[in-house]
């Protein structure tokens, strides 16, 4: 069942306070609100004082009468103890063009350091020129021309970036545990399929979850690169930032992965990337300033 008891961090009457706030904002009495949602005035009173718990159906009826948007409906659901998962966010939808423009600007400003945007199952939706330049160095740029290029597949596959990663086992265990946790939290069948797919890659430690569970990092991961032709170590730290236009998501549907150099050698190498040669690509999104 999706209904859970309100957590200790949310006051028991938080839902009632929100209903009272919106009711009075719209200038409605308890009796008027009750009539519009086809409930007894006493029931509205009990909801506002916390003496009664609402059903999901009642929350939807109240939200319609109070003309609340998706974000405020999410607030009501969580205050009442329900899990709220908004509909999927389509970055290509016309109404989300401002968000996509903003992401494109962030990616461009991150040059000469690599950065990209992925969806919940790791498909790359957008990237900057530095990421494309690195893929050219790794001789993977042809793969990025195919639809639905998956970052996790690039990390796990021998034909992808795996052969370039010195700390691959550590990275793979950490990433797989995060995916597994997200799958359990959201019950997303696509995440379940992704986790099963990644677990099947050869070379993954049999006790990968035990190796990953004590990892201190939560919102970042480090990559140490195999560079036999260079004397200096090349290493980066990837900061993972959730993109949450709807703040009530259990798990961010979109993520920004920003790569940062961990030493001077890496910074100098990235600053020398031939970005001017990269002008067009399906994963580059043009910025349109007014």
Would you write up a description of this structure?
- This protein is an alpha+beta fold.
- Helices cover 42% and strands 11% of the residues.
- The protein has twelve helices and five strands.
- It has a five-stranded antiparallel β-sheet, sandwiched between helices.
- Helix 2 packs across helix 3 (41-49).
- The longest helix has 19 residues, at 168-186.
- The protein is elongated.
Distance between the termini: 48 Å
Biggest sheet details: 5 strands, antiparallel
H and E string: HHHHHHEEHHHHHEEEH
**Count of helices?**
12
**Rough outline:** elongated
Question: How many DSSP E strands?
Answer: 5
Task: Indicate the low-confidence ranges by residue numbers.
Answer: 1-11
Helix residue percentage: 40-55%
- Radius of gyration equals 24 Å
Secondary-structure class:
alpha+beta
Widest sheet, order of strands: 2-1-5-4-3
Q: How much of the polypeptide forms β-strand, as a percent range?
A: 5-15%
Average of per-residue pLDDT values? 85
Ordered list of secondary-structure elements with their pairings:
Blueprint: H1 14-25, H2 30-36, H3 41-49, H4 56-65, H5 70-79, H6 97-110, E1 115-119, E2 124-127, H7 129-137, H8 151-156, H9 168-186, H10 189-199, H11 208-213, E3 220-225, E4 234-243, E5 254-261, H12 264-271
Antiparallel strand pairs: 1-2, 1-5, 3-4, 4-5
